[in-house]
Design goal:
Strand order of the largest sheet: 2-8-7-6-5
CATH superfamily of the largest domain: Type I PLP-dependent aspartate aminotransferase-like (Major domain)
Largest sheet: 5 strands, mixed
CATH class of the largest domain: Alpha Beta
Number of strands: 16
Structural class: alpha/beta
Strand content: 5-15%
Radius of gyration: 22 Å
Helix content: 25-40%
Number of helices: 16
Oligomer: single chain
Bound molecules: pyridoxal-5'-phosphate
Distance between the termini: 58 Å
């Protein structure tokens, strides 16, 4: 290409103003929120990078499709458009709409799992892990070891360690492993992609053992782009061809359409096994709704169907992955430790490397996330011991393997100047990193505590008056 600037491949058609706050307003808001960024009202946030889930801008074509949707209870045209579109990309025959990704997980796991079962994954996402544990089963993370080292540069750090998978199957027996999952891209492991080659290997192991293989496919299009850019022999292919190859290796998938569905709400469960699908639909009727809408309005189904077409567009994906890399590479050039290389949907700052003076039980990534908010109203998300710390038998806490602050970039929502501002805020905080202090939890829930926990700063009595 002639020019190096990757421009947003869209122009802005409707705008929303964003809140610009004083430092005092932010300090007060954070204190009221118990130092939990999930508890902040959005009107207290200037640039919201809490999540890329359902927070993107829809296209004019998606809005148009919503206006023309069919709200019939059973067998609506919007359902058939949606199911055709999902079938076209995934190749799976049974398409079950759900209101979001975790509903698909809940239904699949409630149908397949028994207490004591084991579910391997490269890295389970928080809702996936929680839904497995809720069934009394065990969620095992088997990402290759490079995936746990933020500094290592490797093209496919989301790959599963296939030897570890074989060992896991040998240890527990295939009877105790009702399915193997792979998360593409690996959200909790830095948004790192999974290679087609690795998916082939995992698929082959599963087929040999007779274990169903499911994808957690939330970012299948971003993953397809990485395969095209980084994997040998894939460069001339379209993202859709690659995505189809990926889905063909699996027996089914769970999907949050709030990610690569480019929609604000929606998800689905898809598979080839008709009998399993029948059982899942029975549960769907109990908890989500009739099988042709599954907790969604017809207009939501229409938005997802159109979004799934747009997400595989090459210019969109070039911009999407390029703009995330722009933020990540700018931080690397400025010496900020991040998970390398930058992921697809997010940049992950390595708080363990940046704040060695804050021990894991004082949540360095939470400390950094709150500091970014106080400095410039930037809201990120802790992915560390608050989210993934485990209780140890002695009442203490086993820390998570990594302490990351995820800056997730909503799709088609912010411009490059917004991102330049974010970079400036981060560099301002990094300059005074050694003055940041840890936090302690004063209130927490038994599951997914990161959503509702309240914190208090830990005062450093020895160095401060
Ligand atoms: C978001 C996400 C989910 C859950 O989807 P929701 O729509 O938020 O319920 C599951 N897995 C991964 C990898 C995700 O990113």
């Amino acid at each position: 290409m002639k020019f190096k600037t990757v421009i947003e491949p869209f122009k802005i058609y409707a705008t929303q103003s964003i809140p610009l706050l004083t430092s005092e307003e932010r300090t007060r808001a954070l204190r009221d929120a118990g130092y939990n960024l999930f508890a902040l009202d959005a009107d207290r946030v200037t640039i919201d990078l809490l999540t890329d889930s359902g927070t993107g801008a829809m296209s004019s074509r998606q809005w148009a499709a919503m206006m023309d949707a069919d709200e019939s209870y059973a067998g609506s045209r919007s359902f058939h458009d949606f199911a055709d579109c999902v079938r076209d990309i995934t190749g799976f025959s049974e398409i079950i709409p759900t209101h979001q990704g975790r509903a698909a997980e809940k239904i699949l796991f409630a149908t397949l799992l028994n207490a004591g079962d084991v579910v391997p994954n490269n890295t389970h996402f928080d809702t996936t892990r929680a839904n497995i544990e809720y069934q009394g089963a065990v969620a095992v993370d088997l990402v290759r070891k490079e995936g746990l080292d933020p500094a290592v540069e490797a093209p496919f750090k989301g790959d599963m360690d296939v030897e570890a998978l074989k060992a896991c199957i040998a240890e527990h027996g295939k009877e105790r492993i009702p399915l193997v999952m792979m998360t593409i891209t690996n959200n909790s492991g830095g948004g790192q992609p999974v290679s087609l080659e690795n998916l082939r290997q995992v698929s082959a192991i599963c087929r040999e053992s007779g274990i169903p293989f499911f994808l957690d496919a939330c970012r299948f299009a971003e993953n397809a782009w990485f395969i095209r850019e980084r994997e040998e022999g894939q460069s001339g292919r379209t993202p859709k061809e690659i995505a189809k190859d990926v889905f063909a290796l699996a027996d089914g998938c769970t999907m949050s359409a709030k990610k690569d569905g480019l929609a604000n709400m929606g998800g689905f469960l898809a598979m080839n096994d008709k009998e399993l699908a029948r059982q899942c639909r029975n549960l769907l009727i109990l908890t989500e709704g009739f099988p042709t809408y599954g907790g969604l309005a017809g207009r939501d189904l229409a938005a997802v169907a159109q979004g799934l077409k747009e997400v595989l567009d090459e210019e969109y994906l070039r911009y999407r992955i390029g703009s995330t890399a722009y933020v990540g590479n700018s931080l690397t050039e400025a010496g900020v430790p991040i998970v390398r290389p930058p992921g697809g949907h997010a940049v992950y700052i390595d708080a363990k490397a940046l704040l060695p003076h804050i021990p894991p039980h004082q949540y360095p990534a939470q400390a950094l996330a709150t500091a970014l908010y106080l400095s410039g109203g930037v809201r990120g998300c802790e992915i560390g011991s608050v989210m993934f710390g485990k209780k140890s038998p002695d009442g203490g806490e086993i820390p998570a393997p990594m302490e990351l602050v995820r800056l997730a970039i909503p799709r088609r929502t912010y411009t490059q100047s917004h991102m330049d501002y974010v970079i400036e805020v981060i560099l301002e905080v990094v300059k005074r990193a050694e003055t940041l202090q840890g936090l302690r939890i004063v209130e927490e829930a038994p599951w997914l505590r990161h959503f509702t926990a309240r914190f208090e700063p830990v005062r450093r009595t020895s160095t401060r008056a």
